Amino acid sequence: MKHSHDLILIGGGVGGLIITSVAGQLGLDVVLIERRERLGGDCLHYGCVPSKTLIRSAAVAHQIRHADRYGLEPVASEVDLGRVMDRVRASINTLGEHDDPERFRNYGVSVRFGAARFVDPHTVQINGEQIRGRRLVIATGSRPAVPPIPGLDGIDYWTNETIFDQRQLPERLAVLGGGPVGVELAQAFSRLGSRVTVLQRPSSLLPREDPEMTRALERQLSNEGLSVATGSTVESVASEDGEICLQGQNAEGGFQVTADAVLVAAGRRAQIDDLGLEAAGVKVKNGLIRVDRRMRTSQRHIFACGDCCGPYPFTHVAEYQAGIIIANAVFRLPKRADYRVVPWVTYTAPELARVGLTEAEARSRGMGVQVARFSFRDVDRAVCDGETAGSAKLVIQKERLVGATLLGAQAGELIHELVLAMQTRLKVGQISATIHAYPTRAQVHRRAINTLYASKLFSPRTRSLVRWIQRILP
């Protein structure tokens, strides 16, 4: 019988690397296979790291042009996209040092580059060699989904895998898709100086989010100069003399948009097509590898994590799932995934952060909920910083949070107090009773919760009680 490695990991993104690091340092015989010539996955090279670096540069450019809002002289300057992308590349290179293959080889891991394909449930083939493993992990991530629009394949469109290689800022940019990737990059390029049009087929941006908050975000983007066309279906794309023409239909009839570049941000699809999952006996459902709560596939010795299996396409979820796999595959502990409290953030300005249920989702389940709101324009620190757009919206059942959405500056940082409250099942009164430093944006949480008590506190009954107390007690 061929030698069997303890663990074979297919995919060198965040999930695969966490499992590799732990298993290697524990002394297991581990093989890590990555189809590209570098480790780090989509998040490092094409997703979170480059996009957030770009967004920061765009925010600075926006502040410079609008410095008069802060009592300073505004400066109108041309943006050199090449220099901006050099900074993006520097961030990737700096963080990529943690994913150097030699680091993992020093743990005793065999790191190999090439496309892996299953031969049978325990064997994969890479570069003509067959490798056998006792347990295997699929962590191959996802890739951009490209809609079948006539003429789209005839232009050199961008995706998140190519946009960070661009050196020239387009005068006009059309973005196909109003999900997180689309709106983040659309706003970034608008702030850098492009005229941007977002074409979104659903009737709202970010359709998974609270409609009340996405409408507010859409207004903010429009106020910045972005053209947002929801309910718009692109039916054809054509290019002539370097100008791209997109035609389609919306509620008002036909439309036409001209652009110098097109970004396709129409969702993601799991990177599993060429893995030979049939030979492994691994079942797929709705385009994703099917896993149980212990992250096991239909073959119990084969695990999966990250975008290839869902249910959420976030780096932090892949990290969490990697921990579940380590417990089950390395320590043989029956740990199960729990997605009750999963936060996520869309890094627009203002940011949109979410955890748990929206108001509509809670009511559709028949839950009797209260909704607490508070605007950032009434939070002193937000006023001082000149960042008053947005609000907090808390969904509460029986004194406990079941969901929250924040739209505002640094919402991605602020959401974690609410995440912890949900995870530990704190009563919202405990958040209200917690001293929050002044002046901070975090005061928005207790201020929102306090609105629930105001009607009781200042009710006629309470006023009568207070008068009685004052008369009776010395």
UniProtKB/TrEMBL annotation:
Cofactor: FAD
Any Pfam family hit: Pyr_redox_2
Binding-site list for FAD: 52, 140-142, 307
Keyword Cell cycle included in the entry's annotation: no
GO MF annotations in UniProt: flavin adenine dinucleotide binding; NAD(P)H dehydrogenase (quinone) activity; oxidoreductase activity, acting on a sulfur group of donors, NAD(P) as acceptor
Keywords: Disulfide bond, FAD, Flavoprotein, Membrane, NAD, NADP, Nucleotide-binding, Oxidoreductase, Redox-active center, Transmembrane, Transmembrane helix
TM ranges: 7-28
Residue ranges of every copy of the Pyridine nucleotide-disulphide oxidoreductase dimerisation domain listed in the record: 342-444
Disulphide bonds in the chain: 43-48
This protein's name: Mercuric reductase
Organism: Ectothiorhodospira haloalkaliphila
